[in-house]
């Protein structure tokens, strides 16, 4: 079984210089996927959201934040609201699949997605990192030095930080991103293997049809093609 194959990571130029005030706005990480703070999705930002072509918004918050971090335009954009606390014990990995499906749906229909939390630094950044890691097969490494853990997300972290320099997921999220890497790679390998197996199975079935009498051949071939 061959290893997983991933698309090439697109090139999106980041800012020439990062300034503190830029953290208050959203940045495009890859084409069609933006990361930013809640302030980039407030009511006063409707014109900017529309101008940038945003169609989907991932709103990340915990329950106690719901009175001030909330979907502001449910009639204009499609929302995915995720309840995630910014703590090292929070299970964020359980949300990666929902995030991927939501963003993929947006991109498949020509849309654009904004992912925001409160500050756009930890929770929302971790979700974007996970999406990019899985989509492009980028790596996450862990090294141990003097009994302390130094988490290093190499390509994925570098790519996102080039666009939004202030990202800083908490250590618990970084640990889960490290755990996620072998999971998504194994899933991709399994999917590739299943596709190859199915193609081989259908080819064998068509080859078998070639050796059968012509009577009923077209009907059987149609059954195989539609199976």
Automatic annotation (TrEMBL):
Tyrosine specific protein phosphatases domain mapped to chain residues: 94-164
Any one GO BP annotation for this protein: negative regulation of SCF-dependent proteasomal ubiquitin-dependent catabolic process
Domain of life: Eukaryota
A single MF term (Gene Ontology): F-box domain binding
Domain Tyrosine-protein phosphatase: 25-186
InterPro entries: Dual-sp_phosphatase_cat-dom, Prot-tyrosine_phosphatase-like, STYX-Interacting_Phosphatase, Tyr_Pase_dom, TYR_PHOSPHATASE_DUAL_dom
One GO CC term, this protein: nucleoplasm
Pfam families: DSPc (PF00782)
Family annotation (Gene3D superfamilies): Protein tyrosine phosphatase superfamily
Region (Disordered): 191-213
Coiled coil residues, start to end: none
Similarity comment: family membership: Belongs to the protein-tyrosine phosphatase family. Non-receptor class subfamily.
Name of this protein: Serine/threonine/tyrosine-interacting protein
Species: Timema genevievae
């Amino acid at each position: 079984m061959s290893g997983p194959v991933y698309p090439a990571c697109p090139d999106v130029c980041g800012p020439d210089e990062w300034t503190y005030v830029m953290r208050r706005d959203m940045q495009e990480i890859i084409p069609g996927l933006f990361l930013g703070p809640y302030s980039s999705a407030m009511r006063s930002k409707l014109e900017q959201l529309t101008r940038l072509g945003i169609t989907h918004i991932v709103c990340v918050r915990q329950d106690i934040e719901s009175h001030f971090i909330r979907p502001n335009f449910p009639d204009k954009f499609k929302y995915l609201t995720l309840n995630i606390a910014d703590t090292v014990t929070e299970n964020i990995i359980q949300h990666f699949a929902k995030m991927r499906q939501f963003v993929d749906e947006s991109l498949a229909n020509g849309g654009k997605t904004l992912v925001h939390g409160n500050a756009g630094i930890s929770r929302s950044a971790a979700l974007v990192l996970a999406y990019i890691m899985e989509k492009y097969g980028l790596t996450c490494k862990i090294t141990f030095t003097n009994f302390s853990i130094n988490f290093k997300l190499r390509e994925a972290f570098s790519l996102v930080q080039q666009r939004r320099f202030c990202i800083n997921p908490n250590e618990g999220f970084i640990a889960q991103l490290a755990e996620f890497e072998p999971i998504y790679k194994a899933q991709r390998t399994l999917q590739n293997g299943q596709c190859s197996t199915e193609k081989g199975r259908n080819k064998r079935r068509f080859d078998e049809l070639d050796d059968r009498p012509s009577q009923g051949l077209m009907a059987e071939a149609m059954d195989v093609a539609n199976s």
